[in-house]
Amino acid sequence: MINRKKIESILTGSGFLDYCWINPRRIIVSQWVRVKCVFGCSGYGSGTCPPNTPTVEECRRFFSEYNNGLIVHLTKLAEKDSYPSDWSGQMTDRLLEIEKQVFLQGNYKAFLLNQACCSVCEDCSGNRTDCKDKSRARPSPEGFAVDVYQTVRRAGMKINVISESPSEMNRIAILLVN
Ligand code: SF4
User: Among residues 24, 118, 137, which one has the least CA distance to residue 70?
Assistant: First the structure.
């Protein structure tokens, strides 16, 4: 039995107040997400993105091995063409620390799907073997073929495509617990 209250206090203590629990078997994994990674995403080929991630079918199997996960919703006011890299780096640091704290509670399967493609290094190796910071590199939900919009809505949270700029940008992390 996991201690949800304790995990929630770690999250809120780190400033993440918008979250909800999800059965990871209800995470929607779709082939179209992978196609959009391959065609149209500037992150394709970076160290934690396709083709350096498991196949869509393997991703589905991966989620089916978990019983409890958390969707964490982050927002940041940003211009469309000016990604807030410093903010994103700070969020990644905090989320990795939460993953570590949840692991140390005895949840040995704890694994973070980060709120963005890995951007730990300025010059990404582009593959797993030569990754320069293997202990901190994590894939995004999209890199694991998650249909983020449908999954977040299924969990009862609101998320919409943003058309205005500047605007409150949405970022979604998923912390798989056990
Ligand atoms: S840690 Fe660096 S090299 Fe590794 S995936 Fe992230 S950006 Fe690429």
Answer: 24
Nearest CA to ligand 1 atom 8: 124
pTM of the model: 0.96
Q: Which residues of 44-67 are buried (b: 16+ CB within 10 A; e: fewer)?
A: bebbbbbebbeebeebbebbeebe
Amino acid at 136: R
Q: How many angstroms does the Cα of residue 49 sit away from the middle of ligand 1?
A: 10
Probe target for ligand 1 pocket from 120, 123, 130, with the most ligand atoms within 8 Å of CB: 120
37 CA to middle of ligand 1, Å?
Answer: 17
- Tokens of residue 162, six digits: 């943003």
Task: Report the 10 Å Cβ neighbour count for 127.
Answer: 12
Radius of gyration of the chain (CA): 15
List Cβ neighbours of 48 (8 Å cut-off, separation of 6 or more). 114, 117, 118, 137, 138, 139, 140, 143
Render pLDDT for 73-131 as a digit per residue (tens, 0 to 9): 999 999 988 889 999 999 999 999 999 999 999 999 999 999 999 989 999 999 999 99
Centroid of ligand 1 to alpha carbon of 126 (angstroms): 7
* CA angle 28–26–178, rounded 5-degree value: 115
